Amino acid sequence: MTTGDRQRTRMGLAFVSPWIVGLAAFTIYPIAASLYYSFCDYDVLSKPVWVGLLNYRDMASDQVFWKSVANTLLFNVMALPLGLVSALALALLLNQPVRARGTFRAIYYLPSLVPAVASAMIWLWILNGRLGLLNAALATVGVHHPPQWLADPAWTKPSLAIMSVWGCGNTVVIYLAALQGVPRSLLEAAMIDGASAWDRLVHVTLPAISPVIYFNLIIGIIGGLQVFVSAFIMWGGGGPDRSVLFYAVYLYQNAFEYRQMGYACAMAWMLCLLILALTWLASVSSRRLVFYQGD
Amino acid sequence: MAATPPRWPPFVALLAAALAGCARGGGANPGSARVVVSYWEKWSGFEAEAMQAIVDDFNRSQGRIEVRFLSVSEVDTKLLLAASSGHPPDVAGLWSENIPDFAEKGALTPLDRGLAAAGIGPERYIPVYWELCRHRGFTWGLPTTPSCVALFYNKKLFRAAGLDPERPPRTRAELDDMSRRLTIVEVERAGRRERVSFADLTPEERQGRHFALVQVGHLPQDAGMYVSAWGFWFGARYYDGARRILADDAGSLAAYGWLRQTALDYGVDNLRDFGGSFGIQQSGRTPFLGGFEAMVVQGPWWPNFIAKYAPGLEWGVAPCPAADGVAGGAPVTVAQADVVVIPRGAEHPREALEFIAYLQRQDVAEKLARSQQKFTALSRVSDGFLATHPNPAVRFFISLARSPGAQALPRLSIWHEYNEEMGVAAERVLNLSYTPARALAEVEGRVQWRLDRVSRRWDAVGSERVAEWRSDDNW
Fold this sequence. Notes:
The structure holds two protein chains of two kinds. By secondary structure, chain A is mainly alpha-helical. Chain A is built from 14 helices and two strands. In chain A, strands 1-2 form a two-stranded antiparallel ribbon. In chain A, a hairpin with a 7-residue loop joins strand 1 and strand 2. By secondary structure, chain B is of the alpha+beta class. Chain B folds into two domains: 204 residues, Periplasmic binding protein-like II (D-Maltodextrin-Binding Protein, domain 2, 3-Layer(aba) Sandwich), CATH 3.40.190; 206 residues, D-Maltodextrin-Binding Protein, domain 2 (3-Layer(aba) Sandwich). In chain B, strands 1, 2, 3, 4, 7, 16 and 17 form a seven-stranded mixed sheet that branches. A six-stranded mixed sheet of chain B has the order 10-9-11-14-8-15. The longest helix of chain B has 35 residues. The radius of gyration of chain B is 24 Å and the shape is globular. The termini of chain B are close together.
């Protein structure tokens, strides 16, 4: 390396140093500190005391921890396919050459611009057991004993899954972009060969956009496992019979309400491992279903 | 020399500094050469304005100290972060149930020596409120405004049900009986929907629970944060004061059995349908304020809510009846208090204590209490205070707080979790998904597990901490 190269390197490092300092102070250090605290009895106020694997062992015997894991996985099983399918269906509709298509796209995208807290407040009213719009609509089609969406433990997770569809605008936009990239020549060839609209969708469009479906699945898994805001705003904690005590909510409670920061850090690392495991599983299981151009 | 609080990693310190920065006034105010005492308080709205007026009075009353008042939401969490960074405010307004947790974690300054020097002792207070400020043999704060709870009732609904509006229930049997008479249900009879009292339903109609609740007499689950405290009215102990959680003692089992009976009487789905249309207390959309519930357990703040959200409501208040033999027949209530503390590491503890002592003067405490429409924790009350107080129930609440049946919540550093677990157990019992015995046994197991962890830590640091508190020489 010449003197000039070294000087350029120093200059480059000097220019990126604010970012490096920020990354070190606000990302790398907290991550490393949380790993250390996960092996400590740490309540934020007193000195951390090293306890080895105790937090992880406690987690294994903590029934509420397992309830939060089960709640989170169950919610994802409901919300993830629902979100992916509805967003794809909307994208297919919004991709049709109809009048005022731009307006429709804007309308369907708008809810995703509503802040999560405002959205949760709106849904509190929509899902209200006696006065809510949803139950009023159900009453008009003859459902006289509609669910108590917010009060019945059996219906709290489905109600959140329904809510999650409302904000699928971002996913729709990604699908729409992918649909623009489906080779027209393939669709025309299929049409000439006599393929129906359904056949073209299943055998041409979906394989062509499969990388995007896979991307949305991975993002959905990562986001779904960290679900927090809507449940926290609407129920303030775990909801009736802890039915919406999601992993991130329980983690927050341990960190800031029960002041068990060491335990919360251990939970955060377990969540990280869980996300990695599920992402890997999704990656392996979808390998034969995702097609990239050039494959 | 004051013990230095532990220094914590930069990332915690940064978080806390961001929160602490706005309240940290620095040492002496360079303009006026006064010592600036920063004071964080949880109140907002008219309650904050009332305290601001007191602070202004204090600042005018002398020339040495300037208190700067700041209304802070979630003050307990923010104080925790500020204290962990070593930059807390000089005075903080917490809830009495925070004291054990914050004290054990070394976040508070013991006040005993300072209070002795200022001539402030237990004789000045209603006993239960002094007790709330003590933990492990030390005094950690002093009350500003106290509270306790009682049974508010709607006189108009009493009258409509043929009950004497000046004769609220005195025993639990009367409470349940009146509650059934005051409960109005809609039931189908001979093809027509009729509204009748629950007490007038046929045994078959009760058994089938094919009715809709239109109005209720009293629902134990509407006691909000006091649902987990119903055991006090049944003689429950909750905690042995040392190492054992007593979540499923006979008193708690009786209380949760009562919750279960409510669900059996009215039906889980009917109760959900009835409760589904109401919101949280702060929005004013509660069954009681709407005129759909005849009796509810609330505190001295409740007349403020009635005046704001249901000004026409004709109400009365009485002690909530306890089970036979509890507290020797004395009125039972659960007491809590807003307290002011001096966080560990406060820059000006002496000046902070001077301000806190000022708040304990009878005229000052009464001015604050009157402005917030509450009462004071002091054992003496002036005639003028009672005569001019805007809350017609203030005399009643003072006498209730002085009852031998006034109970302090257990002084446990994990009370927050305990309370939450009891709440979950109550939900399960009300859903009929758990029996009281099973629900409370789970609470006991889980909270005992937590207490064991806390005790293990206390065993490791307790003697060092107590020695530190004993040697405290801030004063």
